[in-house]
């Protein structure tokens, strides 16, 4: 059984996952507007991944018989300064998510709630991969600087990303 305090925190996390999806939808819109169609595709897949993260949490809360309430999802901005800026903001967001998940893990540990702790470890591991992927993209963008052909090549590569449900691994 999940404690009331943890229940509340998990519902907040569920909301944060869908908010993340919304952020990435906005980032996809920005990239599309700027002609970075490959990056727009990349963020659209990131959006799908966040929806899958949210669904995993939702199913867990249902399985644990938690009274689920769904607070509103905060609005997002869709204006960024550059391709580098949008990926940097994406990394900063993921780092914030990692921090939240660590706090939640501490809470589950304090409650000796092994099932929830186990669930949260899946998210913590997923964060390592997400941060590393975005960091690598940022490094590539920094490498080419303002070189148009370089940016075009990176964008093209990002266009080849396809969706694989992260919760099935
Ligand atoms: Fe579900 Fe990217 O955090």
Automatic annotation (TrEMBL):
<comment type="function">
    <text>Iron-storage protein.</text>
</comment>
<feature type="binding site">
    <location>
        <position position="17"/>
    </location>
    <ligand>
        <name>Fe cation</name>
    </ligand>
</feature>
<dbReference type="GO" id="GO:0006826">
    <property type="term" value="P:iron ion transport"/>
</dbReference>
<keyword id="KW-0409">Iron storage</keyword>
<feature type="binding site">
    <location>
        <position position="127"/>
    </location>
    <ligand>
        <name>Fe cation</name>
    </ligand>
</feature>
<dbReference type="InterPro" id="IPR008331">
    <property type="entry name" value="Ferritin_DPS_dom"/>
</dbReference>
<feature type="binding site">
    <location>
        <position position="53"/>
    </location>
    <ligand>
        <name>Fe cation</name>
    </ligand>
</feature>
<dbReference type="InterPro" id="IPR009078">
    <property type="entry name" value="Ferritin-like_SF"/>
</dbReference>
<keyword id="KW-0560">Oxidoreductase</keyword>
<keyword id="KW-0408">Iron</keyword>
<dbReference type="GO" id="GO:0005829">
    <property type="term" value="C:cytosol"/>
</dbReference>
<keyword id="KW-0479">Metal-binding</keyword>
<dbReference type="InterPro" id="IPR041719">
    <property type="entry name" value="Ferritin_prok"/>
</dbReference>
<protein>
    <recommendedName>
        <fullName>Ferritin</fullName>
        <ecNumber>1.16.3.2</ecNumber>
    </recommendedName>
</protein>
<feature type="binding site">
    <location>
        <position position="50"/>
    </location>
    <ligand>
        <name>Fe cation</name>
    </ligand>
</feature>
<dbReference type="GO" id="GO:0008199">
    <property type="term" value="F:ferric iron binding"/>
</dbReference>
<dbReference type="GO" id="GO:0006879">
    <property type="term" value="P:intracellular iron ion homeostasis"/>
</dbReference>
<dbReference type="GO" id="GO:0042802">
    <property type="term" value="F:identical protein binding"/>
</dbReference>
<dbReference type="InterPro" id="IPR009040">
    <property type="entry name" value="Ferritin-like_diiron"/>
</dbReference>
<dbReference type="Pfam" id="PF00210">
    <property type="entry name" value="Ferritin"/>
</dbReference>
<dbReference type="GO" id="GO:0004322">
    <property type="term" value="F:ferroxidase activity"/>
</dbReference>
<dbReference type="InterPro" id="IPR001519">
    <property type="entry name" value="Ferritin"/>
</dbReference>
<keyword id="KW-0963">Cytoplasm</keyword>
<comment type="similarity">
    <text>Belongs to the ferritin family. Prokaryotic subfamily.</text>
</comment>
<dbReference type="InterPro" id="IPR012347">
    <property type="entry name" value="Ferritin-like"/>
</dbReference>
<dbReference type="GO" id="GO:0008198">
    <property type="term" value="F:ferrous iron binding"/>
</dbReference>
<feature type="domain" description="Ferritin-like diiron">
    <location>
        <begin position="1"/>
        <end position="145"/>
    </location>
</feature>
<feature type="binding site">
    <location>
        <position position="94"/>
    </location>
    <ligand>
        <name>Fe cation</name>
    </ligand>
</feature>
């Amino acid at each position: 059984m999940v404690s009331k305090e943890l229940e509340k925190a998990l519902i907040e996390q569920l909301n944060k996952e869908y908010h993340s999806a919304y952020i990435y939808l906005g980032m996809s819109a920005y990239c599309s507007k700027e002609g970075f169609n490959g990056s727009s595709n990349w963020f659209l897949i990131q959006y799908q991944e966040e929806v899958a993260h949210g669904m995993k949490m939702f199913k867990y809360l249902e399985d644990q018989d938690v009274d689920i309430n769904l607070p509103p999802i905060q609005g997002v901005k869709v204006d960024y300064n550059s391709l580098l800026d949008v990926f940097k903001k994406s990394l900063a967001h993921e780092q914030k998510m990692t921090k939240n998940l660590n706090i939640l893990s501490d809470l589950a540990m304090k409650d000796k709630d092994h099932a929830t702790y186990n669930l949260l470890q899946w998210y913590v591991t997923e964060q390592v991969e997400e941060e590393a992927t975005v960091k690598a993209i940022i490094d590539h963008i920094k490498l080419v600087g303002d070189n148009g052909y370089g940016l075009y090549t990176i964008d093209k590569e990002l266009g080849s990303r396809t969706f694989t449900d992260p919760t099935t691994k």
